[in-house]
Amino acid sequence: MTQSTLWGPVWSLAFMQGAITLLWVVYNLYLVQILTQLGLSQELAVGLLVIENLLAMVVEPLMGSFSDRRQHQIGTRLPLISLGAVLAAGLFGVIPTVLVWGQGPLRWGLPLLLIAWATAMAVFRSPALSLLGRYALGTQLPQAASILTLVGGLSGALGPLAGQFILGLGPFVAFTLGSAVLLLATLTLWWAGPKGTLEASPGTARSDLGNRLGTGPRPDGPLGWAGLGLVFGTGVGVSLGFRLVMVAFPTALAQRVPEANTPLVLGTLFVALALTALPAGQLAMGLGNRRAMVLGLSAMASLAILVGVVSSTAAGMVLAALFGAALSLVSNGTLPFALAMVPPTRAGIGTGTYFSGGALAASVGGGLFSGSGLPPTVITLVAALSFLLAGLCVGFSGRFRQH
Predict the structure, then answer these.
(1) Which of 177, 313, 323, 333 is most buried, taking the most CB atoms under 10 A from its CB?
(2) How far apart are CA 275 and CA 282, in angstroms?
(3) By three-state DSSP, how is residue 5 classified?
(4) How far apart are the C-alpha atoms of 127 and 327, rounded to whole Å?
């Protein structure tokens, strides 16, 4: 019986994805609190997030490309991943200590510490998640990616559903736990790494298996810059649209339903994303990944328009659940899409380019739309257009596929 997915390594990679999401959840929950306790402006949080994402826009593809070279030179990306993850975990654990030593002029060292941590997070994410292309064959990638979506969705749900509990832990406990989870995820990634090779399924060349596992000849092809541009554009569209929906939901509920349970609505979105991840992965294997992504992006564009006119908590939960289900089709497909647009030996720059586009969108979304005062209907219209842009990039990508 043939095996086309290394499920142990895939689950370890999902653990890493969940750890990354958890750290950002904790960071976003505590950022304003830490800044204001040190007498810094609350508005500084927006500026920091913009700077962090602009740096990530550059760092993600650079480190992805560097990890490609390390893979070629020493046969593994894990040392680079481990170095970045340990550095990020260490800096994350140090952040709350600024509440003790950061009084007076030293408090201005906090922004530098926060930027250093966010940069460290960008160092290892692309190299780590590009490993998905080594743990599953091309046709099985959406199913394997659904495990990452499942774990990431559950971690993301902690923000709206368990935010008060996490805040109740206090910054020292919350940040220490986050660091410990990231270190544990890194150890798991090392421990669960493939010890041998997969057997190719019928119709799949063994040389392709060897390429993905680093055990055989690794034919390369030219890096298609047009294809990378489409990957970047997809990252921009998906990330910007999602961030704008997450801004529009609470704004619309506050204006139209002041008594609404906004955390419950947002939590429903992430729970639906997690629960529908596995069925969406199966659907993508039947439809094809690009078709599944276009379907999901089209549904998200339509649903985004409705966010601006939500009229009750119940309606908000239904809409959030539908949006989360559509998002699962897209989330499952983004890494396989990026990996398909580059040669197997350039997986790192493929994933890094996608995350680079997402980082640019996060900067634009945070800088232009955070606290902009725009009505939800305008924000959701821009979100819908962003999803349509991403859908066009995916739709036109077929002629530029590398494998």
Answers:
(1) 333
(2) 13
(3) strand
(4) 24
CA distance 347 to 141: 13
Residue 170: pLDDT over 50: yes
- pLDDT band for 200, please (50, 70, 90 cuts): very low
For residues 320 and 252, the answer to whether their CB atoms sit within 8 Å is no
**Residue 204 predicted with pLDDT over 60:** no
Nearest to 27 by CA among 169, 190, 200, 159: 159
Positive or negative, the CA dihedral 301, 302, 305, 311 is: negative
Cα–Cα nearest to 357, from 334, 379, 380? 334
Structural domain including 311 reads 7-400
Q: Any bridge partners for residue 136, and if so which?
A: 5
Alpha carbon 192 to its chain centroid, in Å, reads: 22
CATH number at 388 reads 1.20.1250.20
**1 in any annotated domain:** no
- How far is it, in rounded angstroms, from Cα 357 to Cα 122? 13
* Side-chain-facing half-sphere of 201: CA atoms under 13 Å: 9
Q: Is 136 helix (H, G, I), strand (E, B) or coil?
A: strand
Per the structure, the count of domains in the chain is 1
Task: Give the integer Cα–Cα distance in Å for 237 and 164.
Answer: 31
Alpha carbons 389 and 369: distance in angstroms, whole number: 18
Q: Cα separation of 11 and 14, whole Å?
A: 5
Largest CA distance in the chain: 67
Find out whether 56 and 359 touch, Cβ atoms under 8 Å.
yes
Radius of gyration of the chain (CA): 21
**DSSP state letter for 370:** T
Residue 219 resides in a domain: yes
87 domain residue, yes or no: yes
Summarize pLDDT for 313-351 with one digit per residue, the tens.
Answer: 999 999 999 999 999 999 999 999 999 999 999 999 999
Distance CA 136, CA 212 (A): 8
Confirm whether 262 is domain-assigned.
Answer: yes
Residue 201 or 97, more confident: 97
